[in-house]
Amino acid sequence: MGNPSWFKNVIIYHILIDRFAGFKSTYNWDKPIFLGGNIKGIIDKLPYLINLGINTLWISPFYQTTAYHGYHITDFFKVDPHFGKEDDLKEIIKECHKQGLRIIADFVPNHCSKNHPFFINAQTNKNSQYRPWFYFTKWPNEYLSFLSVKEIPKINLNNKEAKEHIINAAKYWLSLGLDGFRLDHVIGPPHSFWNQFRKQIKNQYPNVVLIGEVWMMGIKRHELKTINIKNRFGKWLLGSSSDSLFKEYIGELDGVLDFKFQELIKKHIIQSNLSKNVFNKYLKRHYTNFPQEYFLPNFLDNHDTDRFLFLCKNNKEKLKEAATIQFMQNQPSIIYYGTESGLTQTKSIWSTSTYGDLQARQPMNWNKKNEDLIKFYKKIIEEKKNTT
After folding, report:
1. Are 115 and 213 in the same domain?
2. Residue 267 and residue 52: Cα distance in Å, rounded?
3. Which pLDDT does position 1 carry in this prediction?
4. Residue 39 shares a structural domain with residue 74
């Protein structure tokens, strides 16, 4: 039902809207505040992206939110004013399509902000129609959330009304012309939700792509109660990026982000724990676990992990070696904004217990771009296009 074959070998550019373009200043970038990056800023930089050679954009959540990164949603049907207006979203979709680019967006079905009006109503009114939309363990202040983050309560997607609300929001944004979604925290909602989600979406939009973030990094044992996967304890023991976890979504999603590739490339290039032959053997074995039509988009880094360049101590030759291997695979390839221009960080995201991820979300280095690295990325992008 609906196979978006156009996605097979795309080159994706992953953008965190607030940190990419449109901000007037980078002051206080290391604080969890809105810097001012916006959709218009991305539109202004489309010539740069087209010149780079990418053919698909992936933008972070643009929905009304309480947080600069967009994952704490207060209205699933509105564009947050920090990022622009709905007309700006329509414009970037139109401009991308005019230039031959596809555009996908993050979609976040599992949770919302505790400041979402539905949750506020559920928490303040014992008889609220929205109370069953959430998992209160002891009303009003104890409830399941995204892992242990009380700021973002978990939505009960077994509830018919809640499920319809979320699926209708997804359909609304696709109606404006988006080419698909990167689906956040896929292991949170139940499989029954994903089956219904896929069925409804593909019935109306058969060619959109649905790619899941299926990852268990950093999850603690007591947080498994917020997860809906088969044999969750066993998979948790297997580690953050097991093939058995990825396989669970065959037939429900079009594919999943390939955290296994990222894990293997780090062991090969950065830690030197895997020789070239062993790396290739592990990678081949990994790919044989999945049907050809199941996409495994690969990446070196993203907004939740340390930048690859930082991990290899800013050795650009190692980054080039890793990117060359990445782009040789018969899968979609993702560039996290700034990786192609030498954007790095000064300390690990894991070095502090609060807001360490800001290190990997630094503002795009427009004034300090590494032109040699950009030239290299243009070359491997062109080579990938010519061989697929």
Report:
1. no
2. 28
3. 45
4. yes
